[in-house]
């Protein structure tokens, strides 16, 4: 563990290192003490690890330089690559320094020579004893040196002092307010806010401004969007037909709420990875809806292929994306690099990849009703209470015999007989009176097996009997969301047959977790049911023998065709099943009937048990036999009352809509795919566990279940050395435009080393100390002097630190796509600040073509809503957003590109949206009585948070004069054209615009095109 | 904007990442400061580009959306005629296909003839291209990894079968830059059909946005936002002049800042494009015989449309645009994806492109441009030798034909071989990576050395594979 002195030495060295980076000619002195992590490992990683690193498969000459043992081992040649203390005896140095083509390392064809300086560093490090250290990012931040009293500026200023740089002064108040407003809320500052701040001389005026912006609901809309870049947020699945990600926007709203409520970051992690498994589910205080479940939509944000020929490969790609995004987002690690071979640079073996693979393979994609939550639960409970009351009333009316209870303890069933042993495999026989170990999700099947449920005549609502045993959603679950799913099994027969009945409902076979079931290949695997009587359905599975699968009874409808693939529950949806089984012979039609029952009398105790909801087949039969003799007259009224209550509650329980998250399935343990090939796998199956690098922190997970909750806990653990560092670095990145670790998604060896390692660790520890409060961390950073500096670099800084790594001044930044568009709407007055809800359809231009194109275009101005509410369709992303570097949602993008392309200028010059907004703004200006100067003043304050200068007023004045003259000219021209032409010449279809309005619109559009508008200065 | 020295592209890219911007002035746009020719000598992966003398300066990629049937076009299989109507399962192992509606062995509805000095076989689908065979290098042994359009399209365009990777046109411009200051270096001529997978086939992926394709379409507005909406050019110019003045005074106030200065200068290119693009797309100045050669006067509207695109492609080559891709016209029978009614569908598609492509090859040759222009004709996969249903063909990634012409390719060559059914490759299997490696090679780029660091890896267009198909080169 590095000591404080080590750190200081390292820091001073970094300065030299960075100085050296700028110019190789500039010979920099070597550090007094060479640090393995910050000086040596980057050299070895960049020049040696490809052949002498952690990946065994590509290792040359049996030499590995990523461990001390490897580097100092006696080689076959009898030499030693590194001899601590003696660089002259170290073979590695001899080879690197050699000038002979056969000897030199790396070999000449690698084109990757070690610089003189790096060689000198290596020598010095060996002379100093060649101390090896674990990789910095995998070591926990040093709590011993943590001092909560220290401020951010303590660390930043220490660097500046060492560099001999003088910090820039504080920025102008108006600039600062604009910076703060855009960075915290993504919108320009509101006039009253800024004027109040500018005129407030109180010492805490700035702090108050920060707090106001943090408390603004706009905050969540800004920071949720940052997060959406990490989790490849999209509302469709791309590929051929761009099918929807069901309920994606609800996840977006969940994020906005989470950031606005300052949900602790560790909770956010747990909800993303295992929201469905948390003991303590979190509910939205306003709606009572379950929030934790929505977090798991995270898994469902990947791409989805239309009709893949190889669905195992499709699953492998889907899980690869989940591994990629999970490890980058939460850990800054590129574990997806270990899909085919051990990671070339980081200590991430392929086994780590497939241990996680098994965890994610164990999860099942699941539709959750959008109103899951406390109220829904209360309603379900209340239905159950009414049902109990009905049973009690009926029980009281039934003639019963006194006598011992005869609940059957051992029930005899005929096992089905087939043409040959093993030719039939029963997946479930619900006629036996239970759920047969199947998994219940949602409420439709929650009431359990139908056995003994009172059945009422649909016309007269009179009790007509008691139900036979079967799985059913008809008793309390009609029109209600839910599934009943089999355990995972291997398809080892050619056919699946099921005996089912239902209305507007679905039976699906899910193979390799593939749910985007569509014709032509897989169509048969989804069967829609509209048969009130029991019927037999069959699927031919011969194509999928050997695949893992589960059968799903889905209460509701799958809409599937080339335009849509989604799920809904109609009010009349119900489903029942007697059994399902696999078999080989096409002639097998059904399972044999169960054994006939003994005629047992209806005993009092059995009846009491039944009234409580527990029964058996004998009792149910006895109930039916005794029904004609029941004295129901007196209880009919009360039963009807309860039935009415149930109907009324159920009407409010309906959620026809759903969102797609995940739920627990059976534990699946993955083999290693040899070189990433799913058709060639290892014998061994890997236990669920977290990374080898953290094996002491996190031992193997339990063999029961998926391990997702344990994974979530390992990542959300305060002892995890990466989690807090990665997140505070992301926050820093969003505020300063560059992370302390510049490669925000990669803390591995190929990432950048931190500019301010001690500060990074300080912030990480502080973040945990503050209960993972994102707002508190943002607040602390925003309140620092470093954040408040002007953007003007000193001469010294320009010379010594042109990249501004030491933050002598605040960096100038271009706004993101969303902030530019939202800024335009905000100043034009068109911004509609309504929050949440379904996305506004994307506006389609003629350039947006292809399959899956929406039928209708959305409005040009997106209804004036903030950009976060614009639909993110993978195949039809909004062009303006893309032009300004909105990332294509396929992986984690913690650091957007900032490009400079002519399409950006063309957009602001010629895009109808921009011109329209300029007009909207101009109209608003003209609607109010004011002088020219007042109007100009208003424009400048809105757009730039400052009044115009004298010179600017002058420029504007002459622009208006010249532009008026031009419009005059055009008008004269048009008039002479039209009189010159034959009179039948049609008049232009639009009324000529008012030149005054047009000129103001021109001016407003010029404002959008000025760099001060799209940059933070 | 003034520059004391020229940065390498790689340095510029890293500066951009660090908020220093200015890329547009160097790479794509060439403008002031760094002279355009310096773009041609860029450092990538520590090496100087081009890595060796380039044979081709530009690429025209004729994308045959949906997958042309090899056994009906460039790979004659007499055995199919002999065994027409027989059960393929009795002949060979049949792989799962996307529609899994496997019919009988289906002979080609078209006759094949030999053409040119090389005697290359071409079917009656392409009577005009057939006349150019001595300029073509035909590869009959292509294989792909994916039987589904979307993945196969991403694979063909980006070297990886998933969304979000840089397209080959983006890689080429990243490596070589553009030679034209007024036009983007990577242009897709949208013939009416955007392939499955959408615009991501033409994107920059993780490369800077400057390298993404600009989509040109036929019609009044050939490029998004290229037409000013102002009632007169002067009115727009006045607006831009005011913006420029205000921007200049901003620079005066904040001091020179590369990123801001580059964004300001960007407007000049945008402004120039407003006139360069209409000039480019105006074909009125082309001679009558040129129009006839391409077929812009054809009675078939799809031939006319594709002819105009081919002519435009030549004009783009003349203007130094690096990479041009043409997508297919929207003929009545869908793209080349004939799951049924092969005869009708392939005939319509072939009729739309045959004359224009032949015209393009001849025109380039006459003008001496073919030598430095690589023309590639390729779909994302081939089709099955057995029917889908009665009269269609399903996807077949195990064998298909593509051809190249010009730019260092040896005309009249036939490379690779399929089995007697044209179902699988039996000799010289050639991958999409090999195709990309060859294209880059002809542009003077060593495919293993054109890399970009993303996600902790130096990523290439050719992933971790690819061999130059040397046997078809001059």
UniProtKB/TrEMBL annotation, chain A:
<dbReference type="Pfam" id="PF07587">
    <property type="entry name" value="PSD1"/>
</dbReference>
<dbReference type="GO" id="GO:0009055">
    <property type="term" value="F:electron transfer activity"/>
</dbReference>
<dbReference type="InterPro" id="IPR011429">
    <property type="entry name" value="Cyt_c_Planctomycete-type"/>
</dbReference>
<dbReference type="InterPro" id="IPR011444">
    <property type="entry name" value="DUF1549"/>
</dbReference>
<protein>
    <recommendedName>
        <fullName>Cytochrome c domain-containing protein</fullName>
    </recommendedName>
</protein>
<dbReference type="InterPro" id="IPR036909">
    <property type="entry name" value="Cyt_c-like_dom_sf"/>
</dbReference>
<dbReference type="Pfam" id="PF07635">
    <property type="entry name" value="PSCyt1"/>
</dbReference>
<dbReference type="GO" id="GO:0020037">
    <property type="term" value="F:heme binding"/>
</dbReference>
<feature type="signal peptide">
    <location>
        <begin position="1"/>
        <end position="19"/>
    </location>
</feature>
<feature type="region of interest" description="Disordered">
    <location>
        <begin position="972"/>
        <end position="994"/>
    </location>
</feature>
<dbReference type="Pfam" id="PF07583">
    <property type="entry name" value="PSCyt2"/>
</dbReference>
<feature type="domain" description="DUF1553">
    <location>
        <begin position="707"/>
        <end position="959"/>
    </location>
</feature>
<feature type="domain" description="DUF1549">
    <location>
        <begin position="152"/>
        <end position="363"/>
    </location>
</feature>
<dbReference type="InterPro" id="IPR022655">
    <property type="entry name" value="DUF1553"/>
</dbReference>
<feature type="domain" description="Cytochrome C Planctomycete-type">
    <location>
        <begin position="48"/>
        <end position="109"/>
    </location>
</feature>
<keyword id="KW-0732">Signal</keyword>
């Amino acid at each position: 563990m590095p000591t404080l002195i080590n750190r200081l030495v390292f820091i001073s060295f970094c300065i030299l290192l960075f100085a050296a980076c700028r110019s190789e000619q500039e010979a920099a002195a070597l550090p007094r003490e060479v640090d393995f992590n910050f000086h040596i490992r980057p050299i070895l990683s960049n020049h040696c690890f490809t052949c002498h690193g952690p990946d065994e498969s590509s290792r040359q000459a049996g030499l590995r330089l990523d461990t001390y043992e490897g580097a100092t081992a006696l080689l076959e040649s009898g030499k030693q690559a590194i001899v601590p203390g003696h660089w002259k005896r170290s073979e590695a140095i001899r080879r690197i320094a050699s000038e002979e083509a056969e000897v030199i390392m790396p070999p000449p064809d690698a084109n990757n020579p070690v610089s003189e300086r790096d060689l000198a560093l290596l020598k010095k490090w060996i002379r100093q004893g060649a101390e090896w250290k674990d990789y910095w990012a995998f070591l926990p931040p040093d709590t011993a040196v943590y001092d909560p009293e220290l401020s951010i500026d303590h660390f930043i200023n220490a660097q500046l002092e060492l560099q001999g740089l003088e910090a820039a002064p504080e920025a102008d108040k108006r600039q600062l307010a604009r910076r703060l407003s855009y960075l915290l809320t993504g919108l320009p500052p509101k006039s009253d806010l800024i004027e109040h701040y500018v005129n407030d001389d109180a010492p805490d005026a700035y702090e108050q401004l920060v707090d106001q912006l943090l408390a603004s609901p706009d905050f969540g809309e800004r920071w949720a969007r940052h997060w959406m870049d990490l989790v490849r947020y999209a509302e469709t699945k791309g590929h051929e037909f761009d099918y929807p990600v069901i309920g994606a926007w609800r996840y977006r709203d969940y994020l906005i709420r989470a950031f606005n409520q300052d949900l602790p970051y560790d909770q956010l992690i747990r909800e993303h990875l295992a929201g469905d498994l948390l003991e303590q589910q979190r509910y939205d205080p306003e709606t009572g809806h379950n929030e934790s479940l929505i977090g798991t939509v995270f898994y469902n944000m990947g791409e989805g292929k239309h009709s893949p020929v190889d669905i195992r490969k499709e699953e492998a790609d889907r899980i690869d994306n989940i591994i990629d995004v999970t490890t980058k987002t939460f850990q800054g690690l590129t574990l997806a690099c270990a899909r085919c071979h051990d990671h070339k640079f980081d200590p991430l073996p392929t086994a780590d990849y497939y241990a996680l693979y098994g965890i994610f393979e164990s999860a099942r994609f699941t539709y959750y009703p959008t109103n899951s939550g406390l109220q829904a639960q209360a309603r379900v409970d209340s239905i159950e209470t009414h049902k109990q009351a009905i049973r009690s009333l009926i029980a009281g009316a039934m003639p019963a015999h006194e006598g011992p209870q005869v609940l059957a303890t051992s029930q005899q069933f005929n096992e089905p007989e087939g043409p040959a042993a093993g030719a039939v495999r029963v997946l479930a026989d619900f006629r036996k009176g239970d759920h047969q170990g199947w998994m219940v999700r949602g409420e439709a099947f929650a009431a359990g097996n139908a056995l003994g449920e009172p059945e009422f005549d649909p016309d007269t609502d009179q009790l007509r009997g008691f139900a036979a045993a079967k799985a059913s959603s008809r008793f309390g679950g009609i029109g209600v969301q839910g599934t009943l799913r089999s355990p995972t099994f291997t398809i080892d027969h050619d056919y699946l047959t099921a005996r089912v009945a239902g209305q507007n409902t679905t039976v699906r076979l899910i193979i390799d977790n593939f749910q985007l079931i569509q014709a032509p290949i897989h169509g048969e695997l989804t069967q829609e049911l509209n048969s009130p009587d029991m019927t037999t359905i069959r699927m031919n599975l011969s194509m999928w023998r050997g695949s893992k699968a589960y059968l799903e009874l889905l209460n509701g409808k799958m809409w599937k065709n080339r335009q849509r693939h989604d799920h809904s529950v109609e009010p009349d949806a119900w489903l029942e099943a007697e059994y399902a089984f696999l078999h080989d012979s096409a002639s097998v039609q059904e399972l044999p009937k169960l054994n006939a029952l003994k005629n047992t009398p209806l005993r009092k105790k059995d009846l009491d048990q039944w009234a409580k909801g527990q029964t058996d087949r004998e009792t149910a039969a006895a109930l039916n036999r005794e029904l004609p003799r029941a004295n129901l007259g007196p209880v009919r009224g009360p039963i009807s009352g309860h039935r009415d209550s149930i109907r009324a509650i159920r009407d409010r329980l309906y959620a026809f809509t759903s969102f797609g998250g995940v739920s627990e399935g059976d534990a699946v343990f993955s083999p290693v795919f040899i070189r990433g090939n799913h058709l060639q796998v290892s014998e061994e199956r890997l236990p669920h566990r977290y990374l080898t690098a953290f094996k002491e922190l996190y031992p193997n997970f339990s063999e029961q279940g998926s391990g997702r909750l344990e994974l979530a806990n390992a990542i959300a653990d305060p002892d995890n050395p990466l989690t807090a560092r990665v997140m505070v670095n992301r926050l820093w990145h969003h505020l300063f435009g560059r992370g302390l670790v510049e490669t925000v998604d990669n803390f591995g060896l190929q990432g950048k080393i931190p500019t301010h390692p001690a500060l990074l660790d300080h912030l990480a520890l502080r973040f945990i100390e503050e209960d993972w409060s994102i707002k508190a961390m943002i607040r602390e950073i925003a309140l620092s002097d470093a954040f408040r500096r002007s953007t003007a670099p000193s001469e010294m800084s320009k010379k010594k630190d042109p990249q501004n790594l030491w933050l002598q001044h605040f960096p100038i930044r271009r706004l993101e796509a969303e902030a530019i568009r939202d800024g335009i709407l905000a100043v034009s007055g068109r911004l509609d600040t309504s929050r949440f809800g379904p996305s506004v359809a994307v506006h389609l231009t003629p350039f947006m073509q292809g399959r899956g194109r929406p039928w209708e275009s959305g409005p040009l101005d997106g209804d004036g809503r903030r950009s976060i509410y614009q639909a993110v369709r993978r195949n039809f992303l909004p062009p303006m957003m893309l032009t300004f570097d909105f990332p294509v949602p396929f992986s984690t993008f913690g650091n957007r590109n900032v490009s400079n392309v002519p399409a950006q200028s063309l957009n602001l010059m010629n895009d109808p949206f921009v011109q329209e907004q300029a007009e909207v703004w101009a109209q608003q200006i003209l609607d109010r009585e004011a002088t020219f100067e007042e109007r100009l003043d208003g424009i400048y304050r809105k757009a730039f948070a400052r009044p115009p200068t004298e010179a600017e007023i002058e420029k504007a004045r002459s622009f208006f004069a010249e532009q008026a003259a031009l419009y005059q000219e055009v008008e004269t021209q048009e008039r002479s054209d039209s009189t010159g032409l034959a009179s039948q010449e049609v008049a232009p279809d639009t009324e000529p615009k008012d030149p005054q309005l047009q000129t103001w619109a021109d001016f407003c559009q010029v404002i959008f095109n000025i760099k001060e508008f799209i940059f933070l200065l | 904007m003034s520059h004391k020295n020229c940065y390498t592209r790689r340095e510029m890219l890293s500066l951009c990442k660090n908020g220093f911007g200015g890329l547009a002035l160097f790479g794509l746009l060439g403008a002031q400061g760094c002279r355009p020719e310096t773009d041609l000598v860029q450092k990538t992966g520590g090496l100087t580009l081009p890595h060796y003398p380039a044979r081709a300066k530009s690429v025209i990629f004729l994308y045959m959306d949906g997958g042309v049937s090899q056994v009906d076009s460039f790979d004659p299989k007499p055995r199919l005629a002999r065994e027409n109507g027989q059960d393929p399962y009795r002949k060979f192992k049949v792989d799962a296909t996307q529609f899994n509606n496997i019919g009988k062995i289906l002979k080609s509805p078209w006759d094949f003839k030999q053409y040119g000095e090389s005697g290359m076989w071409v079917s009656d689908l392409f009577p005009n291209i057939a006349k150019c065979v001595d300029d073509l290098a035909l590869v009959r042994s292509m294989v792909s990894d994916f039987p589904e359009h979307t993945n196969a399209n991403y694979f063909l365009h980006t070297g990886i079968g998933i969304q979000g990777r840089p397209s080959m046109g983006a890689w080429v411009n990243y490596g070589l830059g553009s030679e034209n200051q007024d036009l983007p270096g990577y242009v897709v001529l949208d013939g009416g059909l955007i392939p499955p997978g959408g615009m991501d086939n033409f994107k920059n992926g993780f490369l800077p946005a400057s390298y993404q394709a600009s989509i040109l379409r036929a019609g009044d507005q050939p490029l998004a936002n290229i037409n000013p909406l102002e009632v007169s050019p002067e009115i727009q110019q006045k607006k831009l002049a005011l913006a420029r003045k205000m921007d200049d005074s901003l620079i005066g106030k904040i001091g020179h800042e590369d990123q801001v200065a580059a964004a300001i200068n960007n407007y000049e290119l945008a402004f120039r494009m407003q006139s360069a693009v209409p000039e480019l797309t105006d074909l009125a100045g082309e001679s009558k015989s040129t129009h006839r050669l391409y077929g812009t006067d054809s009675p078939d509207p799809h031939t006319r449309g594709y002819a105009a695109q081919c002519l435009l492609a030549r004009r783009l080559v003349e203007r130094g645009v690096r990479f041009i891709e043409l997508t297919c016209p929207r003929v009545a029978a869908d793209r080349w994806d004939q799951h049924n009614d092969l005869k009708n569908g392939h005939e319509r598609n072939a009729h739309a492109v045959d004359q224009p492509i032949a015209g393009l090859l001849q025109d380039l040759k006459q003008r001496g441009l073919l030598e430095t222009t690589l023309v590639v004709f390729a779909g994302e996969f081939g089709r099955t030798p057995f029917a889908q249903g009665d009269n269609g063909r399903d996807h077949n990634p195990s064998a298909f034909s593509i051809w190249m012409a010009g730019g260092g390719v040896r005309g009249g060559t036939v490379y690779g071989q399929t089995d007697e059914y044209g179902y699988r490759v039996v000799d010289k299997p050639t991958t999409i990576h090999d195709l990309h490696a060859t294209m880059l090679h002809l542009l003077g780029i060593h495919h293993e050395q054109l890399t970009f660091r993303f996600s902790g890896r130096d990523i290439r267009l050719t992933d971790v594979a690819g061999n130059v198909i040397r046997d078809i080169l001059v």
